[in-house]
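Task 17 of the worksheet. Students: predict the tertiary structure of the chain below and write it out as structure tokens. Keep your answer in the requested format; marks are given for formatting as well as content.
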Amino acid sequence: MDSNRFRRKFTRIVSLACVYKNVRTMDTRLARKEAKIAVGPLKKLRAEDRTAIAALKRKVAGLEREVAFLRKRETGRLKAAPKPEAAEGVRFSPKWVAADRARLELSAKDYAALVGVSMLTIFNWEKGKTKPRAKALAAWAGVRGIGKREAWKRLELLEA
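Model answer:
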């Protein structure tokens, strides 16, 4: 008798365990299905965003290449020595060098970098100790008429 009772109890426990397992499995399936339904549109949006980001990265890379090319070309143009023929008819005065440097608000070092000479040369020109040769005079004539913004842009290009 005790064994029958035990069997019935055990069978009940086993069947309850199976029911619990089935319910848990069904709950898991339902939860996965609901999660899939909720996440589906988000996955689509994520894919679209990733595509847009990749396109923007390609565009930025192209623009960076273009900027690098233009910077290199402009730097080469600025570093190219001016022709001495460009100095014909250009008048020079030590006061003009000092006034131009003061107008641009540049140090002698920066002004010298723009003209393409040494800092000491700029000091000597300003004091009237020396005069520029034809090549340097042509370079100075090219810098003489530019504005502050253009001077700073050229300096940035020369330093890069």
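Marker's comment: The chain has a mean pLDDT of 82. Residues 100 and 144 are 7 Å apart (CA to CA).
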